[in-house]
């Protein structure tokens, strides 16, 4: 019947440990809405209204979504439900990496990002082809702010063509846009 954990491969056990760690972090992480407890009620209503109206913009293009702080947070939450948040996290890490100015910081950050997202069997390995992975590995020898451009472009395209359409069809996004539409209708009726 059940042969226990000893029968599982080392790779499978490692992935299970990583999943357990991720789930544990999620259980202890405060949700975005809970951080705003100190904000007064009128401020919360205004922020909620602004973010729900902003949600209507996210379906215009993937760029609209990525340019919105709330959009990125909502999309990240959605990706977590699909266990594919590593693509967005890698994209964000690359954006932050491009801001580094020091050569030594570039090199150390580049290696850290590569180990976390790009190398085979990385803890948050992104789905890129072998050629892109190898090109990125070669780019690390002389790390520049553009050394992840090819890999970042691949993951962005993957998110835009795959995850983004599913996000737009998700109940969480549909609820946000419905709320914004209702608020907009309510405003017109009261003015």
Summarize the structure.
With 191 residues, the chain is mainly alpha-helical. The chain is built from 9 helices and no strands.
Structure description:
The protein has 191 residues and is mostly helical. It has helices at residues 10-28, 41-57, 62-67, 69-81, 86-97, 103-118, 130-139, 149-169, 171-190. The longest helix has 21 residues, at 149-169. The termini are far apart. The relative contact order is 0.11. Residues 24-49 have low confidence and may be disordered.
What is the topological layout?
Blueprint: H1 10-28, H2 41-57, H3 62-67, H4 69-81, H5 86-97, H6 103-118, H7 130-139, H8 149-169, H9 171-190
Helix pairs in contact: 2-9, 5-6, 5-8, 7-8
List keywords for this structure.
191 residues, mainly alpha, 9 helices, elongated
Q: List low-confidence stretches.
A: 24-49
Count of DSSP strands: 0
Outline, from the CA principal axes? Answer: elongated
What amount of the residues lies in strands?
A: under 5%
Structural class: mainly alpha
Biggest sheet overview: none
Structure annotation, total helices: 9
Distance between the termini: 69 Å
Helix-strand pattern, N to C?
HHHHHHHHH
**What would you report as the Rg, rounded to the nearest angstrom?**
20 Å
Helical coverage, percent range? over 70%
Mean pLDDT: 79
């Amino acid at each position: 019947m059940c042969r226990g954990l000893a029968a599982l491969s080392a790779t499978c056990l490692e992935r299970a440990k990583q999943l357990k760690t991720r789930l544990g972090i999620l259980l202890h992480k405060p949700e975005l809405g809970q951080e705003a407890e100190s904000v007064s009620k009128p401020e919360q209503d205004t922020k909620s209204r602004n973010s729900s109206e902003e949600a209507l913009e996210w379906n215009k293009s993937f760029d609209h979504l990525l340019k919105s702080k709330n959009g990125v947070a909502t999309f990240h939450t959605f990706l977590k439900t699909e266990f594919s948040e590593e693509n967005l996290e890698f994209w964000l890490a690359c954006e932050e990496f491009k801001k580094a100015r020091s050569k030594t910081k570039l090199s150390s950050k580049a290696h850290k990002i590569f180990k976390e997202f790009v190398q085979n069997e990385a803890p948050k390995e992104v789905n890129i082809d072998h050629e892109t992975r190898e090109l990125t590995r070669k780019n690390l020898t002389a790390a520049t702010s553009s050394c992840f451009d090819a890999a970042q472009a691949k993951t962005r395209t993957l998110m835009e063509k795959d995850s983004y359409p599913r996000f737009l069809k998700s109940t969480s996004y549909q609820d946000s846009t419905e709320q914004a539409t209702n608020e907009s209708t309510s405003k017109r009726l009261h003015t």
